[in-house]
Amino acid sequence: MVNENEKTEINTQKITLTEEEVGRLDRQIRVWGFDAQQRMRNATILVVQLKGTATEVIKNIVLAGIGKLVIMDDGDVMEEDLGSGFFFRDEDVGKKRVDAAKDRIESLNPLVTVETIATFSGLEGSDFDATIQAVDLVCVTDWNREGLIRLNDGCRRLGKPFYAGGTYGVLGYIFCDLLKHDYVAPNDRSVPKEAQKNIKLSATYPSLSEALRHRWTALTKKQTKEVNPAVVFAILALWEYQKVHGQLPTGSTDVAELQSIANAMISAADVQKQVLETIPSELTVSLSETARSEFSPVCAIVGGMLAQDILKTLGARDPPIANFFTFDGNTGAGTVCRMSMP
Q1: Is residue 244 part of a domain?
Q2: Is 172 helix (H, G, I), strand (E, B) or coil?
């Protein structure tokens, strides 16, 4: 684990907002405050895998004025990327995703430095530490469960905040592990803004592997309903299916197996039986048939939420997600579930 002195040493060269930047970001500074904007400006963010969710994240954090963006992806632009990846054009098909997107990302905000890495080798072996130590926050999108756990554990070891997110057809999720996160927030939002006082707060986050061992026993029937567990377990079951088969479901022939996996997980986690005993069949049918697809509206919502939370974390203003967010495009609803988090 990196100690506080080492963290400080990594970020010794601070960027000061120029008069031009203050003018450009005036509206944001009024919302976040100057100090929060300054922290964003000094941040280096690594975004892994440049698909639909990531393009939304990148758009928002670049426009918000972070200091440096590192994008990592080893894939080529394919025709299916054109629907949800708005950094890509028809003529980009066959090019490396990071190369095709770089100029268009830079055009959003010329003050942000954009670096591209067209391989995932920096996340393996001896190169991992150097890759992660060079950034302030890691965001991995559209990845499998085992890979997310490994990357999250590595980020924890190096003291780096970690976000994961992605979409599966009409469903989407965000997970964050912010280690021990300090932030400020109003002491009482029920009073007029001018009467509010900011207080310092802190939250301790578990790793993804710890979060996945969450037991639902302690939740009341009402609390269980509020977090929409059907969508949570649909995504968790999808991850397990992906581990077993090495791929996402391909269609209706996978419905029964996905349903069985989800139901076994619900039982093992001690979910209130009065709330959820089995995943609704229409949800597993939808997921089996659309999990491989990216829908722009879903990517926009999940990616926008993910970007907003990253900016909250960087600015240390207001509480970030705690700690697993799911979105259901069938209903248009999003919920947050505290998984193994105090």
Answers
A1: yes
A2: strand
